[in-house]
Amino acid sequence: MRKFKVAGAQLGAIQKSDSREAVVARMVALMDQAHEKGCELIVFPELALTTFFPRWYLTDPKEIDQWYESEMPSAATLPLFEKAKEYQMAITFGYAEKTPDGHHFNTSIMTNKDGEIVLKYRKIHLPGHGEYAPKRAFQHLEKYYFEPGNLGFNVCANLGGVMGMAICNDRRWPETYRMMGLQGVELVTIGYNTPAYNAERRDEADGKRLFHSQLSIQAGAYQNSTWVVAVAKAGNEDGHELIGGSLIVDPNGFVVAQAKTQEDELITADVDLDESRFGKETVFNFAAHRRVEHYGLISSQTGVEVPEEVKKQLEQE
Ligand code: CDT
Questions:
Q1: Measured distance CA(29)–CA(35) in Å, rounded
Q2: Cis ω on the peptide bond leading into residue 100 (within 30° of 0)?
Q3: Whose CA is nearest to atom 1 of ligand 1?
Q4: Long-range pairs for 176-179 at CB < 8 Å and ≥24 separation?
Q5: Beta-carbon neighbour count of residue 312 at 10 Å?
Q6: What is the pLDDT of residue 203?
Q7: Is there a contact between 23 and 14 (Cβ–Cβ < 8 Å)?
C-alpha cells in the first residue's frame, strides 16, 4: 500500500495507582479517534501500560513483578489487539517484558493490520543507573530493572514497507537509525518517557530536553531518509514531570505533525513511503558513499580514547 495515514498516540500521565485496564481503555479511545481519521498505523509510547516505574527504587520482588507482562497479548491488553483487527490498523506500543526464563526487557511490539505481532524490539541503549543513587533528584533505574536488548535493531515488512522500532534513549544514538537504515528502513517508530529535567542538573529543563529530543529525531530521519514517528508519555506522574512534544518527521527531516499538550493527544500525518526513495538513492546512497574501512572504532570501542600522540601534543602546549 505504501501510502497511508499514521497516528502518533501520545499518552498523558499514568499514575502509579492506575490499572492496566484503565490505561488500555484510554489507548482504545485513541484508536477510536485514529480510526475515525482513517489511520492504518498507530504508535503508542514506551512503557505505555504503566507509570514510568524506573523512577522508583523497589526491592520487594513481588512489588517489582507487578510492572512486567509475562505474556502478550495478556488479558488486559487483548482489547488493543482485537481493535487493531476490527479497525484494520497496525499498532505498536512499549511494555516491560518478563520472559518465561526470568529475563527482563524494556520491549516494544508491532502488529500488522490483523493484530498479529510481526516485530518485537528490546531496548538496547538503557540510560540511567543500576543501583540506588541517593544524590540524584529522582531515580532513573533502567539498568536495575532491565537487561540490554538482545534482538538487535531488526526490521519487518508492514503496510507495504520496511519498518523498525527503537525506544526512548535509543533515539539519541545515530547507530540506532543507521543499523535500521542499512536494512532499508522506511519508517521508524519510537516511544519515549523523558523526565522534564535532568536529575543531576536542574538547569537542564524541558526547553533544552525537547530541543535535544527533536534534534536527534530529525537528524536520524534525514540522515537515513526515513519517516520517524516518535511518541511521548507526557505530563505529571505522581509529581514527576515528563516532556511531551510527540512528533512525526518526514524523510527530509521536516516535522509534519507535533503534539501541543501534555495529555492524551492524537497527531496524524499522511505518509508516502516512496518519499524515502530519493534520499536513499542520492545523498544517502549508502552503497555509493559509505567508507566502512574508516568506521572501525564505532563497533570496536565504547568510551573515548584520545590517541597517545595527541595526548603528548596537548602536554607540550
Ligand atoms: N526512558 C528513557 O530512555 N529516558 C531517557 C532519559 C535520559 S535523559 C537524557 C531519554 O533518553 O529520554
A1: 10
A2: no
A3: 193
A4: 176/124, 176/125, 176/220, 177/220, 177/221, 177/223, 177/224, 177/226, 177/228, 178/223, 178/224, 179/152, 179/153
A5: 9
A6: 81
A7: yes
Q: Find out whether the beta carbon of 139 lies less than 6 Å from any atom of ligand 1.
A: no
Atom of ligand 1 nearest to the CA of 169: 11
Could you identify the atom of ligand 1 that is nearest to the CA of residue 198? 8
CB atoms within 10 A of CB 79: 17
pTM over 0.85: yes
Nearest-angstrom CA–CA distance, 293 and 10? 41
Does ligand 1 come within 6 angstroms of the Cβ of 194? yes
Q: Are strands 187-192 and 227-232 parallel, antiparallel or unpaired?
A: parallel
Q: How far apart are CA 18 and CA 68, in angstroms?
A: 14
Residue 1: which pLDDT band, with cuts at 50, 70 and 90?
Answer: confident
* Residue nearest atom 3 in ligand 1 by C-alpha distance: 169
Q: Residue 128 Cα, ligand 1 centroid: separation in angstroms?
A: 8
Predicted pLDDT at 66:
97
Q: Which of 3, 7, 83, 94 is nearest to 48 (CA)?
A: 94
* Full set of structural domains in the chain with CATH: 3-284 (3.60.110.10)
* CA 222 centroid distance within chain: 17
CB neighbours (10 Å) of residue 313?
Answer: 10
Q: How far apart are CA 234 and CA 242, in angstroms?
A: 5
HSE-up (13 A, CA, CB side) for residue 51: 19
* pLDDT tens digits along 201-252: 888 888 999 999 999 999 999 999 999 999 999 999 999 999 999 999 999 9
Cβ(172) – ligand 1 distance below 6 Å? yes
Contact criterion met (CB below 8 Å) for 241 and 195: yes
